[in-house]
Amino acid sequence: MKKKAFLFSLHPGILKVLCKIAGKGEEVEKLTGTLLVDSSKIHNLLGWKPPFTMEEGIRETVKAY
What we know:
Blueprint: H1 12-21, H2 25-32, H3 40-46, H4 54-64
Helix pairs in contact: 1-2
């Protein structure tokens, strides 16, 4: 879009307070909170097994860079 990005650093605690004041507390939690994924349903329904363990996947990703 040929626009320069305006990026700045902000401590997550300050961001959370500002967003709660602005009525966006739930949105900021989605962005800054922990992401946990439970794949047990697909394992049980389809018998799917990931091709790598999480450790192997991270190791391979790091090696690629």
